[in-house]
Amino acid sequence: MASQEELADYLRSAERRAFRQALFAVQNEEDAMDIVQDAMLKLARHYAGAPAHELPLLFQRIMQNTIRDFYRRTRVRRLVFTLFSALVPRKEEDDTPDLLETLDVAADEIHLDPQAWLMRKEVATLIDASLALLPARQREAFLLRYWEGLDVAGTAKVMGCSEGSVKTHCSRANHTLAAILSQKGVTL
Fold this sequence. Notes:
The protein is mainly α. Helices cover 74% and strands 0% of the residues. The chain is built from 8 helices and no strands. Helix 1 packs antiparallel against helix 2, helix 1 runs parallel beside helix 3 and helix 2 crosses helix 3.
């Protein structure tokens, strides 16, 4: 059983990664923050007594379900308000979120080797843009496996699919990302 302190520590450590994951999924900072907060509240409310080693898997499952719920609500809203949208003029916004705001970069590192720092920042920007191009399931599998560090079984459990599907999604995501990045002259 996880103590309140263990739960709080886990949520603190997962907050930034979860925000980034939600931001990739919904492409809107406010919605992403709402999703993360909802997922954290659900974990604290329903699974506060779960063993500490199960918290990452439970939280990722809750995150994915909360993202799916967001899309369901959005789809229903669009369906209901489709007729009204033609009557009300829309304001065009090009608020592309700066995904690099969440990267941790030490201030000393910039001063020690600014050229290397700039190159890493450019590569990170390219990777973020490339991740946004992936289909949703491939991006989800990639983020869970390689950013969250879940194993294949854990990722399959979170995504609600078979381990073979996770491997397929990850493989396709890796090949697609490698192709996109190599076209842009980046080799990792």
